[in-house]
UniProtKB/TrEMBL annotation:
Protein's organism: Tolypocladium ophioglossoides (strain CBS 100239) (Snaketongue truffleclub)
Region (Disordered): 1-24
SMART domains on file: UBQ
Ubiquitin-like domain mapped to chain residues: 21-97
Superkingdom of source: Eukaryota
Name this polypeptide is given: Ubiquitin-like protein SMT3
Length: 100
């Protein structure tokens, strides 16, 4: 029986690292939700560019936030301690507000 149990746990153990290596991230603006599956070590610049291309937006006209903090293109999900199912918010970049 122990040989059977070892045979059953090995595939599960092999799947766990593969699942933990990738994250499903939801990117949402107020109108759209797009889901991405990325590696934990992938720079978020790749995800940000893909979202902007799909939505027809310029990367310089939007900002991405995770838990209220601005995401930099060089950040990775590991650096931000993101978990599977987390989401990034996309907001229109605003310039101005100077004093009179």
């Amino acid at each position: 029986m122990s040989a059977e149990n070892d045979g059953r746990t090995s595939p599960e153990q092999q799947e766990a690292p593969a699942n933990s290596e990738h994250l499903n991230i939801k990117v949402t603006d107020n109108n759209n939700e797009v889901f991405f599956k990325i590696k934990r070590s992938t720079k978020l610049e790749k995800l940000m560019n893909a979202f902007c291309e799909r939505q027809g937006k310029s990367i310089t006209s939007v900002r991405f936030l995770f838990d209220g903090t601005r995401v930099q293109p060089t950040d990775t999900p590991d650096a931000l301690e993101m978990a599977d199912g987390d989401s990034l918010e996309v907001h229109q970049e605003q310039v101005g507000g100077g004093l009179f």
